Amino acid sequence: MATEPTPINNDTVLNVAQLLKEQVGGKRVYALTLDALPLDDPMMARDVTAQLKLTRIADGILVTGSLAGRTRLECVRCLEEFDTDFGGDVEAEFRPTIDIASGMLVEVDDDGESFEIDDNHCLDLAEMLRQVSILTLPIRPVCGDDCPGFTSEFRGGEEPPTEEAGDERLAVLEKLLDDSRGNS
Ligand SMILES: [Zn+2]
Prior knowledge:
By secondary structure, the chain is an alpha/beta fold. It folds into two domains: 6-136, no CATH class; 154-183. Helix content is 21%, strand content 39%. It has helices spanning 17-21, 126-136, 162-183; strands spanning 6-9, 13-15, 27-38, 44-57, 60-74, 81-96, 114-117, 122-124. The strands form two sheets. It has a six-stranded mixed sheet with strand order 1-3-4-5-6-7. Strands 2-8 form a two-stranded antiparallel ribbon. The longest helix is centred in the C-terminal third of the chain and has 22 residues, at 162-183. The protein binds zinc ion. Zinc ion is lined by residues 75, 77-78, 80, 142-143, 147.
């Protein structure tokens, strides 16, 4: 059996009919490249590559491997956009909706953790790759060590006015308390 990965460019749909007919343990390897992969609107990954192994398992097909790409994120501190590389491991199960041997509908046990192989025996890697990519991205992205930080308007020795505002609110509260005590 050939072990050279099959290259796939700018496509995420694979027909797995032949692999589904094989015994458990049957394998295919793919080298996937995508110019663009939509993540969360308007976030877009670019230059995505994935090395993927598809293995026939009892329930369907297990996809394992790794992926890497590049995307643009907004820094949580300075709010500037910056480019960042991402990458991570892939492990996902795809389950058939039609039994390959009988052509009968398969009762899909929807556990929310597996993806579907459609009734043409095709699986679409896009949603799985999107989810894996998002999981590898930082929850609170920071543009870098030289990030100018939160808003720059309070720099230069000036203290942010938050404490003062807090004192004012506290003063109002204290006055209200004094008033209510005075009335009782
Ligand atoms: Zn920043």
